[in-house]
């Protein structure tokens, strides 16, 4: 028997359904049970494409296991600054993001990054612990996970060493001597002295090797004006005038790779990327059929009178706190940082990407090619660019404004005296650390 | 005989030879792009090789790399879709804005015209941050629509300004005749002014298409998925890896990328020149 009117039960059912639909439409979001969970990750294109492929494989695998739709977006590292700025401005974008090249990003975006203390604590014991745990803390907190670094050994042409009667060098003075001899036969030493990340790395390495630094351990005192800095500057001036060509003042990060692979430079301070690309492209020594990769060797970053230290790009990963998927993002990080996954990822990168975890510095890949043998040694003496001070937005700005390369270049080219160049750099750094330049 | 020979030779000295340095200067980057895209990597690295010639044989490897190992053709199509859509939208809005500013007298008309021009001068590097908030609120992030919507922010002021200049070169009297015959404003615009102003419209469209096609910053910021990237961003992302630049691939991408622009200008060059010059003298 049917009634022509609407029963109370029908009315309630219809009303509840309508209210539900209205609620969904008003919120613009599907109910939790129907939502597909999504996780996105923005990272930079690795020099070794297989690294990105392995990361994508792991991301997809984790997504399939957890029924999460995943998206890995890869951009050139030069684009990352712009992309991060826009995502923070819009409070929207990817859930996970690469940070770098340096730890300073985490201080700059401190208020927008989720705390990763729990993840950092979970993943470290499984991988033999962090290499230098305190280096990675930003204002005492884990605002990022240090992900990978490309260690900076020295690449040298062994055939040219033989020609000038030298052996593999070990100290900066050795390199000066070899560079002089090399330049005399048309094969100078090459290190960038312009506005490039490589210039920051090599010139900081020289400063530390001669006992100089630009900021104290307290992260406040500017220490650039010192006897040690003057000694380092005198050394670089000799290196520039006696062992290098003036073109190094205009070099970018790719220039030293090109100089080595073109058969011109006798040696460069660089990750193994130059060697790897020479091997891949079968580049030959000019005027011969011999592959240039066969006459390249890699040695430890040079020692100075005081120390042996270097730095590099500290590539890190963070989770935006405006992400709706912070927990999922952390879960993926735990998955990626499992020893077996990190091992596969390092292997895919041919050792170019070394994690900041003790066990990974002993990865078999570093024994797979004679060229990689010194990379773990280089990693041991690698410190953040702000060393001995902590990483801050100010330390990052010193790098981003290329104050150190400019200081060395002004003196080396004779445009300023050592005192003038140091006084200029000191003033710039003091302003940055006082916060006056941060809003520029 | 000698007179006609002199007449034949004269353009060589008065036209072709004087123009030759400018032509070479303009074409050199294209030539360099082209030969670099066909050189083998080993030759690209060799400092003893002559950079302006291919000495060790031609390779199509860089084009194969683009086609087989990247999403280059998807990026190409994305660029085409975005550029055509943004151009059409901007030219239509530009026409509708330029007509009243060029023809009608109303309070603040001149100031409004100046304000449009000033808007064009605001650099995208300042605008991308606030625009990213707008794009996000519109829910257009990571879609080609984000570019179709944002490109007109710099295209519309430009098209409006260019078309204002061109519309002013068209005699007002022919419109007045049409109005006497019963045409309204819109009909006058569509049936009288636009057919006469075709060179100006094509010129604005060409410029708008070129600016959209070459745009980099918004395409980088508003679109992340690899399959949705435009060509400018895609090529840059895939072929610069750390401190290794795939020069051959980059140049191959640049060569293919310049083709639509070259084709467009070849077909519409006369319109382009007359569109620019007519607007310039009024």
Please count the helical segments of chain B: 14
> What is the percentage of strand-forming residues of chain A?
5-15%
Average predicted local confidence, pLDDT of chain A: 90
Largest sheet of chain B: 2 strands, antiparallel
Count of DSSP H/I helices of chain A: 17
- Assigned CATH superfamily of the largest domain in chain B: MetI-like
Distance between the termini of chain B: 45 Å
- What percent strand of chain B? under 5%
What is the N-to-C succession of helices and strands of chain A? HEHEHEHHEEHHEHHHEHEEHHHHHH
Provide the CATH topology of the largest domain in chain A.
D-Maltodextrin-Binding Protein, domain 2
CATH architecture of the largest domain in chain A: 3-Layer(aba) Sandwich
Tally of extended strands of chain A? 9
Quickly name the level 1 CATH class of the largest domain in chain A: Alpha Beta
Explain what this protein looks like in three dimensions.
The complex is a heterodimer of chains A (440) and B (282). With 440 residues, chain A is α/β, with parallel strands linked by helices. Chain A has helices spanning 8-27, 49-66, 80-90, 104-108, 117-126, 158-163, 172-184, 197-209, 227-243, 255-261, 273-281, 326-336, 339-348, 375-380, 393-400, 403-412, 418-433, and strands at residues 37-44, 68-75, 96-99, 145-148, 154-157, 189-190, 267-269, 296-299, 315-319. Chain A folds into 2 domains: 37-150 and 312-379, D-Maltodextrin-Binding Protein, domain 2 (3-Layer(aba) Sandwich); 154-310 and 401-433, 3-Layer(aba) Sandwich (D-Maltodextrin-Binding Protein, domain 2). Chain A has 17 helices and 9 strands. In chain A, the strands form 2 sheets. Chain A has a 5-stranded mixed sheet, covered by helices on one side. Chain A has a 4-stranded mixed sheet with strand order 6-7-5-8. Chain A is globular. With 282 residues, chain B is mainly α. In chain B, strand 1 and strand 2 form a beta hairpin. In chain B, helix 4 (72-103) packs antiparallel against helix 13 (231-239), helix 8 packs antiparallel against helix 11 (198-214) and helix 8 (152-169) packs parallel to helix 14 (247-281). The interface between A and B is large, with 48 and 31 residues.
């Amino acid at each position: 028997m049917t009634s022509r009117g609407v029963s109370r039960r029908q009315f309630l059912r219809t009303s509840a359904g309508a209210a539900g639909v209205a609620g969904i439409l008003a919120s613009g979001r599907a109910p939790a049970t129907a939502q597909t969970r999504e996780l996105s990750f923005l990272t930079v294109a690795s020099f070794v494409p297989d690294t990105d492929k392995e990361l994508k494989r792991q991301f997809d695998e984790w997504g399939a296991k957890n029924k999460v739709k995943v998206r890995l977006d890869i951009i050139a590292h030069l684009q990352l600054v712009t992309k991060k700025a826009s995502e923070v401005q819009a409070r929207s974008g990817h859930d996970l993001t690469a940070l770098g090249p340096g730890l300073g990003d985490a201080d700059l975006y401190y208020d927008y990054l989720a705390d990763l203390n729990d993840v950092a604590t979970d993943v470290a014991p499984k991988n033999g612990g962090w290499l230098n745990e305190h280096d990675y803390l930003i204002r005492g907190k884990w605002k990022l996970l240090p992900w990978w670094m490309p260690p900076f050994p020295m690449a040298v042409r062994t055939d040219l060493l033989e020609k000038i009667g030298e052996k593999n060098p070990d100290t900066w003075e050795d390199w000066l001597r070899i560079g002089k001899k090399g330049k005399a036969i048309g094969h100078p030493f090459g290190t960038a002295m312009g506005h490039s990340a490589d210039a920051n790395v090599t010139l900081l390495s020289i400063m530390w090797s001669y006992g100089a630094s630009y900021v104290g351990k307290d992260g406040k005192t500017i220490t650039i004006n010192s006897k040690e800095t003057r000694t380092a500057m005198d050394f670089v001036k000799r290196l520039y005038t006696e062992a290098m060509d003036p073109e190094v003042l205009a070099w970018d990060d790719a220039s030293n790779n090109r100089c080595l692979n073109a058969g011109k430079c006798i040696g460069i301070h660089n990750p193994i990327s130059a060697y790897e690309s020479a091997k891949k492209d079968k580049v030959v020594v000019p005027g011969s059929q011999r592959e240039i990769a066969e006459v390249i060797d890699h040695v430890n970053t040079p020692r100075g009178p005081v120390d042996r230290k270097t730095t590099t790009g500290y590539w890190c990963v963070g989770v935006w706190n405006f992400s709706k998927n912070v927990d999922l993002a952390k879960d993926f990080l735990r998955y990626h940082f499992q020893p077996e996954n990190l091992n596969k990822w390092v292997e895919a990168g041919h050792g170019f990407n070394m994690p900041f975890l003790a066990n990974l510095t002993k990865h078999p890949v570093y024994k797979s090619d004679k060229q990689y043998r010194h990379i773990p040694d280089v990693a041991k003496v690698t410190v953040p660019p702000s060393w001995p001070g902590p990483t801050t937005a100010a330390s990052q700005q010193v790098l981003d404004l290329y104050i150190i390369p400019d200081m060395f270049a002004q003196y080396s080219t004779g445009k300023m005296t050592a005192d003038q160049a140091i006084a200029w750099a000191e003033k710039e750094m003091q302003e940055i650390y006082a916060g006056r330049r941060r809003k520029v | 005989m000698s007179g006609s020979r002199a007449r034949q030779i004269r353009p060589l000295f008065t036209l072709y030879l004087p123009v030759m340095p400018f032509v070479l200067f303009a074409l050199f980057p294209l030539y360099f792009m082209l030969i670099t895209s066909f050189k083998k990597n080993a030759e690209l690295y060799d400092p003893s090789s002559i950079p302006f010639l291919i000495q060790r044989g031609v390779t199509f490897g860089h084009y194969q790399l683009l086609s087989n190992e990247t999403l280059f053709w998807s990026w190409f199509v994305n660029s085409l879709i975005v550029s055509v859509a943004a151009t059409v939208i901007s030219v239509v809005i530009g026409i509708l804005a330029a007509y009243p500013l060029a023809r009608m007298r109303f309070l603040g008309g001149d100031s409004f015209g100046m304000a449009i021009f000033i808007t064009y001068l605001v650099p995208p590097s300042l605008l991308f941050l606030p625009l990213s908030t707008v794009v996000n609120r519109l829910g257009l992030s990571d879609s080609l629509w984000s570019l179709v919507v944002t490109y007109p922010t710099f295209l519309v002021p430009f098209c409006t300004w260019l078309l204002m200049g061109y519309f002013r070169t068209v005699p007002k009297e022919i419109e007045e005749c049409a109005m006497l015959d019963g045409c309204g404003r819109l009909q006058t615009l569509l049936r009288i002014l636009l057919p006469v102003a075709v060179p100006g419209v094509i010129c604005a469209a060409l410029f708008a298409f070129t600016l959209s096609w070459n745009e980099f910053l918004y395409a980088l910021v508003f679109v992340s998925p690899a399959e949705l990237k435009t060509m400018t961003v895609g090529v840059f992302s895939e072929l610069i890896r750390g401190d290794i630049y795939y020069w051959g691939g980059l140049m191959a991408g640049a060569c293919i990328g310049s083709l639509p622009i070259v084709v467009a200008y070849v077909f519409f060059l006369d319109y382009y020149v007359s569109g620019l010059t007519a607007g310039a003298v009024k």
